[in-house]
Amino acid sequence: MIRILLAEDMHMVRGALVALLALEDDLEVVAEVERGDTIVSTVMECRPDIAIIDVDLPGLDGLSAAALLAEQAPWCRTLILTSLGRPGTLRKALAARVGGFLLKEAPPARLAHAVREVAGGRRVIDPQLALAAFDNGENPLTPREVEVLRMAADGAEAAEIAVRLFLSVGTVRNYLTTIVTKLNARNRVDAIRVARESGWLM
Q: Any bridge partners for residue 147, and if so which?
């Protein structure tokens, strides 16, 4: 019997997943949590074989919780189940050493198969998302350009960025123009969106 912890903050979704997993003879949900910051302590208490974790959780995001589990409870494998099909999210998941990454719209049979595979020590990645991550390529931005874009994403104007990075306002504006061009974006806001979805702006 594969023992499962399920971390999902939406009650209806969590209930549906529990019911779905209960249909499988060899799978048992032994714990349910709705907050990311309760995952590690619950795993320590219930000692499941695998934790199925949503990315967007209150308290602590699912990927950070997965990284903590890899350090503190290495016997518990992790499967990220998410509606956020972004290549950047997959990259972060792989960096957190998750065992699997599956989209919520995957067929039910694929979820059960993924749980068994990950519990057995194998890695399962949604094929479409893996392909998108591969096609997405490397970050075209320099570390300084990422720094400027991150400040802009936090709401800083060019003048404020210039002061904080000891640059002229003109230089910051040049950086922002270069960033928009490199990312083939329409404007600064679009560049922030592209960088975030690609996982280049953490």
A: none
Residues in the chain: 202
Does CATH place domain 143-198 in 1.10.357.10? Answer: no
- Which helix (H) or strand (E) segment is 66 a member of? helix 62-72
pTM assigned to the model: 0.68
First CA to last CA distance, the chain: 38
Report mean pLDDT in 10-residue bins for the chain, 202 residues. Answer: 96 93 95 96 97 93 93 94 73 82 86 94 80 63 90 94 93 92 88 83 71
Instruction: Delimit the domains of the chain by residue range.
Output: 2-134, 143-198
Residue 187: phi and psi, rounded to 5, are: -160, -170
CB 78 within 8 A of CB 66: yes
CATH node for 2-134: 3.40.50.2300
* Contacting residues for 16 by C-beta, under 8 A, at least 6 apart: none
